[in-house]
Amino acid sequence: MKARSPVLLAVAVTLMLAGLAVGGLAYFRQLAAGDVVTGMRSLGAGGAVWGLYVVMDGFFLGAGIALMACACIARFSRDREMESVARIAMPIALLCFLAAALSVLADQGRPGAALVNLMSFARPQSPLFATFTSVGAICLFASLIHCVLARRPDLAEYAKRPSSWRPLQRLLAAGYRGTPAQRRRRQQVGFWMSLLMLPALAVPLAALAILFAVRPGRPWPLAACEAVAFTFASGAGGLGLLVVAAALVGWLAGREAGLGVRGFARLGRGLLLVDALAVLSVVVAEIAGLAADEPAAATCARALLGDAYGALFWSELGLFFLAGFMLWRALWRTGLRPRVVVAAGVMSAAAVTLQRYLLLVVWQTHGLLLPYRPGSYSPSWVEVAVVAGIVAFGLLLLLPSVRLVPFAPAVYDQRPVAGKAADLRRVLVTAAWFAVGLAAAVTGFLLSLRVGTEAFLDPVFPASPVVFIAGLMLLAMTGAVYELWPEPTGANRKGATACDGAPAPAEPPPQ
User: What residue ranges do the domains of the chain occupy?
Assistant: First the structure.
């Protein structure tokens, strides 16, 4: 990435390193002293057991799913602006998934023991099981495979330039020469992976919505309204991050790497839609809570309007309304210019963070069905520092990653490639790989459910969650197996000869 000013880049890296160091020291303090240094306390003693860490897990995971869904939808179209959306959305989604996983680990008192127990004895009903299997296998790993396969032509072109990243670029683009057969397979795999990842991403999003919205004794209409609000807010948060990231990429790396005015206008219209749906669903959920017959649900809803959380709730609604009003006004008057869309994206992301906070914390302090006195929660400096360290760590990882796979495109071809059907060996190997992955995922899931033994006992096969995660990862690699399986003997030479007369792709801009 070529920054506009080396001084600006140096200052940004210094701030991120400082944030990472402070966050690391704060987390080591938490490990040494325990959760007493955080704002989390016991339920019934005026506190909350889930706080800022789980709030940020909900924000990052929901936003990452929305970002990857945007990238998958963008890949259906071969429009240049939509390809730019996919290029920017994929790495940002990967960083969101990594930040979500780190936020969950920060919430564990003993993260090492939690991971060991997860891999050995966890059951699907556990929030940690749902979070780590979905984040690790479905979101993080599958999205990484999808991102690398989508950028292999660019990697092959960038590997021709002298660079310290050249060996790794050659490794990731190994075997790609742009033959018609390879281009056809790439288009097929891109389409089917994008299509199948959309329902796959809906699974962790639904699990997360249930975790935040469904609680014992809550009326199901209220829980459904809150789950819908959670889902629409995830879309608003993801699109908000996407427009901010696109603006930063265009400012730092140039217009070739960023989005044009048309691309920002498209994202702005999408943000306006999900913002309107999010604010409507939040208001409907609040009305449903006030009208609920359950005393705990009504108490929780009144706390959002009262002194305890009223300022945060009205700030959330105000940010949603202001972002939507700015987009609507610009759409009907001057058009959705990038600055308006970016400002609305920032406000939407802030509103979603407040929505996650209120949805998670209020029911713990005011909405329990037990005869506990109302409590309060506010994050301590340790929690804030740890979250800042997680964000700084993700941003630091982004710098070398965009050196390896720059945002600016090196190859662009919107024409569909006609070609003969795939050879039988490739189809059989891919089908066998898919069958093995599906069998491992189903077997691991059933064993984790304690099939074959009592529900209160350990699974029949220890480490059954590992089998489930491995099966999901094998399924995620199916597209890569189909695309990367070697051609039959002699086919590569013929394909290369047929491609010799094709015009050379444009040289990538320096990064």
Answer: 6-425
